[in-house]
Structure formats: C-alpha cells, structure tokens
Specification:
This protein has 488 residues and is an alpha/beta fold. The chain is 41% helix and 21% strand. β5 (89-97) and β6 (102-110) form a beta hairpin. The structure holds S-adenosylmethionine (SAM).
C-alpha cells in the first residue's frame, strides 16, 4: 500500500452528480492524513465541504483506513484574489463515527504551519493519535469520567496496596492466586482492610480474579505489575503522594492567583526552589527521585553530543545536585564545570562533587537567574540547561536568555535538554508531562510548565538566539536536545 497518494478523485455527490476533488493521503505508522482539495470551477458537482462526511466514509472503506486513526483536512487553494475569502485555507474536520459511517462534520481552522506539521509528522505520535480524534464510545467516556471523579481515592488505594505489601503478596502467589484472608494474615492486617483494597484493585486492574468463589483468589494484573515494579511509576507515585497531593487541593486558587498556593503546606516560600533543601526528608527524597529519574536517562545520549565540540569549560545553569556535572567529569578527564544555581542547591552540589573526588573540577556560582541585576559568569565554551527552562514562564525564559547573551562568546553553544509533551512517543509520557505542568502551577512557582517544543524555541529565539540543531527522542523518556547559538 502506498505511503503517499496525490491525485484527482472522482466521486458521486448529492443526487449522484459526478464530482471531483484533489486527494492526498499520507499514511503514517500511527494514522493517515487525508487532504481533500476543493477544485472550484473544475468540480461539476458537490464541494468537499458539502460532501465531507460521505467522502471520509467512502475513502476509509476504499483505501482501507482505520476510522479511529483518520485525520481529514479540507484544503481550499489560493485563488489569487485581493479578497481574503479566496486565500488558501486548511481546516481539520472532526466527525462522529456511528460504527458504519462518519456524520456531523465540524471544522477547525489550521495555520499552514500546523497543516505542514501534521503532514510531516512533526507532532509527536501520542499527540497525533488521540488528541485530535475523539473516537471513544460514550459508555467508555462515562467510565473515564468516573475515574476522574474518584481519582484521588483510586490513587490512595493503589499506593496503599503497594506500600502495605498487598501487591507484593499477590505477586508472590503467582498463578496460584491468593485470597484476602491469607494476605491479611501474612501482613497482620484486617481481612476487611485487605478486602476493600483488593476489590478496588480489581476496578483499577491492579489485580485480577482467578476464582470468584466465596473466598476469591487474586492474581497480579499487568497494571499492578507496573505499579509494583516499574521505576517510572514509582517515582511518579511517590512524587504525587509526597510532594503534590496535599497542595493540589489549592490548584484552583493557584490558577486564580498565579502563585503556587499549595506550597504553603511545606513553607512560606515564593517558589519551591527557595525551600528545596529545607523540605521534609521524605518529601525531598521523592522530589529528587522524580527529578533525577527523568533527566538522568537522557544524559548518556547527550554526553557525546555536547562533548563533540570538546568544551573545556562548561556552565551548568540550574545544575542542582551536580549529577550532570559529575557525569561530565567522568566522561571527559579535562572538562571543568561551573554550576550556576541558588545557594541551597549549590551547597549540596559542592558536597556531592567533593564526595565524588571532583571538588577541584566542579565549582559553583550563586545566581538567582530571575534577578534583573544579576549577571551570568563569562568564559564558558558551552552552556548546559537541563530541565531548567521549564521552571520559568515564557517571558521569564526570554529574560533569562537575554541576560545570558552578553556573557557568551560568539560561537558558544547553549544546550537545552527538555521533555516536550508534543514530542513523546507514548501517550503515557505526554500525560505525565501535562500533569507535571500542574505541579509547577500549584507547588513550584505558579507560572511555568512542561512546554510544547515550538513555544520554548520561540521564547529563546526572541532573546536573540537561533536554533542551530534539534535532536529528539533521547533516552527512554524521549527528551529533546536543542542547541542554540547567539543570532548574528
Ligand atoms: C528541575 S531542577 C533541574 C535540575 C537538573 N538540571 C536536572 O536536569 O535534573 C531546576 C534547577 O533550577 C534551579 N533554579 C530554579 N529557579 C532558579 C533561579 N531563579 N535561579 C537559579 N537557579 C534556579 C533549581 O534550584 C534547580 O536546581
């Protein structure tokens, strides 16, 4: 089957009148984009707009396209008129699917750039597949709504099952399965307590029934396997439970005030970064486990790219606990790394560098990058910012980058490592990033988020930088590594 079709297409329109349009089909692994081009005077019959749902139905059947993975765009070419109504336009069409045909077309205007992005597959697979298509059945959508309604209880139930050892005990029973009574006895819990959790565990697919007699037997479900053993799930759950859970109740207030109102559960700081080193031990542990879990996975892929230019002095802005700085020292025996960060983090970074035997190669400069009077140290061969710019609003990003510019030599590379939600391979990753944005809203600073790639690039470019290189899909978590240079 062709990946790309571009031709005229003839169809029978209203009352069977012969009609035609331009047809382009771009097949991707995860979806097909069908572009219907209006031919105006050379179309004797129904326009693509008037025959939209019928055309989409007909093409899905004749071209073997999955209705759930079909993106239809209507295109009207430029008619070279002075009137705007004759300009070129692109409209994405959404439909309802009744099981046999498309109905109820709805149009959303796309910019040319958005259309090209769709065709070229610039947007991440996760975004393409489900953010554009509302293909869920009503009965499933209603279930999803209940998952949201009981979300906090579901979360606590899953965490309790993990931390009380219930999942472990079910896992240990393997295919034989185990009943609530036996789990309760082995963990010295009440049969009632274990019973209600296991029943909720069924609804969460953490466990499955092997036998549903009077004393039912439970086995571990696939979702339970991930809750129990998957490192990313553990880091996310602990982060949500320890860092975000209580403060998330103040999300609405944070949206109204633009401040991290939930942070008050830990202290009276303007941002979480001012209090990071003073958070309660367990909270701090979960914060760092979450932070490190993600960026660390991309470091091995990033190191050869950054060191291809053989920087001998690297500045790590927002270097935190010195994880990247130490990775650099291990990778290149000559490099010296200067961490630029807030005082609390620098103290930790210095301790870690000493402990790793790199005290002479890792130094620190205290700087609040939001201070309009603050200036960045000069002399870097390359600058590194990992999971750093997402801690700021786009206006702040622009301001920080403008203040960085004068400290840079002309050919200095500025590397930005970020997970962009529109560049993810898996929807679970985009979901986690969207949720992480709300941690920024209610706990971290009230005004930043995990960005879409283009919006962050645009903010850095507004500060007088040009994007020299972009690599996507680094590490298991699809990080993007952007290389900027000052624009001449
Ligand atoms: C999310 S952490 C990223 C840490 C590390 N680069 C990584 O990839 O894991 C953000 C870092 O930015 C620092 N930071 C936040 N606000 C800052 C500010 N206003 N001035 C300087 N550093 C700041 C924090 O202290 C923290 O070390």
């Amino acid at each position: 089957m062709a990946d790309y079709i571009d031709r005229e297409y003839e169809y029978r329109g209203l009352w069977g009148v012969p009609s035609k349009c331009g047809l382009k089909i771009v097949r991707r692994a995860d979806l097909a984009v069908v572009v219907l081009t209006e031919l105006y005077d050379s179309n004797p019959g129904s326009s693509v707009t008037n025959w939209s749902a019928q055309l989409a139905t007909e093409l899905a059947a004749s071209e073997g396209l999955d209705p759930a993975k079909l993106v239809v765009v209507e295109h009207t070419p430029d008619r070279h008129s002075k009137l705007e109504i004759y300009d070129e336009t692109f409209d994405r069409v959404s439909y309802s699917w009744d099981g046999g045909k498309f109905t109820d077309p709805r149009w959303t205007r796309l910019s040319k750039a958005e259309f090209e992005a769709l065709i070229e597959g610039k947007v991440g697979a996760a975004m393409r597949e489900s953010y554009f298509i509302d293909g869920i059945r009503a009965v499933d959508a209603k279930f999803e709504a209940q998952k949201i309604a009981f979300g906090p209880i579901a979360f606590q139930a899953a965490r309790a099952m993990r931390d009380l050892g219930i999942l472990e005990s079910v896992a240990a029973a393997k295919d034989d399965g185990i009943g609530p009574g036996a789990v309760a006895r082995s963990l010295e819990l009440s049969a009632y307590g274990v019973g209600v959790l296991l029943e909720m565990g069924l609804s969460l697919a953490l466990v499955k029934l092997k036998d549903d007699g009077a004393d039912p037997l439970f086995v571990l479900g696939k979702t339970g396997h991930f809750v129990l053993y998957d490192e990313m799930t553990r880091a996310n759950m602990d982060f949500v439970g320890d860092v975000c859970y209580a403060g998330a109740a103040a999300l609405e207030d944070s949206i109204r005030s633009g401040k991290p109102e939930g942070l008050k559960v830990f202290g009276d700081w303007p941002t979480i970064y001012d209090g990071l080193s003073r958070l309660p031990e367990g909270v701090k542990r979960s914060w760092f486990a979450f932070d490190h879990h993600y960026s660390d996975l991309a470091f091995p892929d990033a190191l050869p790219i950054v060191f291809a230019g053989k920087p001998s002095r690297l500045f790590d802005v927002g270097g935190n606990t010195a994880k990247w700085a130490l990775a650099c020292c291990r990778y290149d025996p000559d490099v010296k790394v200067t961490i630029v960060d807030l005082p609390g983090q620098l103290a930790v970074a210095r301790r870690n560098a000493e402990a790793a035997g790199f005290g002479d190669r890792v130094s620190g400069v205290e700087l609040n990058v939001l201070d309009p009077k603050g200036s960045f140290p000069a002399g870097a061969d390359a600058v590194w910012m990992s999971q750093f710019l997402d801690c700021f609003s786009l206006d702040e990003v622009e301001g920080i980058m403008k203040r960085l510019r004068p400290a840079l030599r002309p050919a200095c590379d500025v590397f930005v490592l970020e997970p962009f939600w529109d560049r993810q391979r898996f929807e679970a990753a985009s979901y986690s990033l969207h949720a992480t944005s709300l941690y920024f809203t209610c706990m971290a600073n009230g005004n930043s988020k995990m960005y879409r790639s283009d919006e962050l690039v645009a903010a850095v470019e507004r500060a007088g930088f040009g994007l020299a290189e972009a690599r996507h899909g680094l590490g298991a978590n699809s990080y993007s590594l952007l290389r900027f240079r000052t624009a001449s």
